[in-house]
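Our working data are protein records whose layout never changes between entries. An example says more than a description, so a record of this kind follows.
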Amino acid sequence: MVRVLLLLIAAAGLAGFVLWVSRPRIAVELQDGRATLVRGELPPGLLSELKDVARSAPHATGHLAIRGTGATLKLTVTGLPEGPAQRVRNVVLLRRDRL
């Protein structure tokens, strides 16, 4: 009985750790021509450029999630049409050394 309880506690701890590690370090919401920082910190110039992308597609709504740093940066852009999504990726990747 004690082994089962310890196994359940270990499994719950592992699941919590995986969920904590997998969440984005930086999150930006693009909606109604605006870019809003939801989580983390961005260099002011990068947020300004993301706002420019959002203004260029005022009716598009999407989400940008950034995980990792530098060379291991992983971007996830959801909800945006391909054109604005590619612009978001380009803007972020050009400044990845500052993230």
Observations:
- The chain has a mean pLDDT of 87.
- Residues 24-98 form one domain.
- Helices lie at 2-22, 44-56, 82-94.
- The beta strands are 26-31, 34-39, 62-67, 74-78.
